[in-house]
Amino acid sequence: MVKKKVQEFSKNIFMKKLNKIPALFLSGVLLLVLTASCTKYTNGSGVANNNNNDFSLANINLQVYNLPKDSLNQVERNSLLFTREEEKLARDVYVAMYSKWGVNIFSNISGSEQTHMDAVLILLNRYNIADPAGVPGVFTNTTLQSLYTQLVQQGSKSIADAYRVGATIEDLDIYDIESSIAGIDNKDILWVYASLTKGSRNHLRSYYRNIVAIGSAYTPQYISQSQFDAIINGPMETGY
Fold first, then answer.
1. What are phi and psi of 52, to 5 degrees?
2. Integer angstrom CA distances of residue 234 from 55, 133, 162, 199
3. Strands 48-49 and 41-42: what pairing?
4. Three-state DSSP class for 49?
5. I want to staple 178 with a disulfide (CB 3.0 to 4.6 A). Which of 9, 10, 205, 230 is the partner?
6. pLDDT in tens, 134-173
7. Which are the contacts of 161, defined by CB distance < 8 A and separation ≥ 6?
8. What is the model's pTM?
9. What distance in Å separates the CA atoms of residue 182 and residue 14, rounded to the nearest whole number?
């Protein structure tokens, strides 16, 4: 019950803060993102593939730098460092899962996670923060390092386990970002984080679809069951 209240509180704060961004600006963002999304296609794995990452990143960079650059507090700084590596965790695990199983969903979504990493890197560069991301499979954050090892081992057991690892990562990404925004006021960070969570919802839908298709199941580990149900029963969202 306490966890659910915290999740709902964090989500409400996220939406209130995001609503502070001018509506006209958000309309322009939506137009640009929709334009970038026109190059997407869906393959047999049921996941949208973004074949225009350079164009999308150009748009992300444009929108970030069109928003004000406010002073950065320690919570925001720590969040950016962690989120950069958490997106790297997703990319690196999915690359490992594709190498193990050769299923396209892992290759496709790892490409999207690279875009997510690059979006956070834009913010790190804007605020002159050193990039913590290193070579694949290696993390500055010791918690993420341990989690990487654990998830790769788990996902190597079977394809069902690999799909569940994918769902777990997206479940965690959504939870962590929504939990972090209570201490974040900067509009550029909030905009990027809103885009990241939208991408994670799409990825969660894709992994869950594959889990169900092979007769397996997944129970959310971090977000609430009601939020999970709303996500998987909702449509794929445009964005990255």
1. -145, 50
2. 27, 33, 23, 13
3. antiparallel
4. strand
5. 10
6. 999 999 999 999 999 999 999 999 999 999 999 999 999 9
7. 154, 155
8. 0.80
9. 7
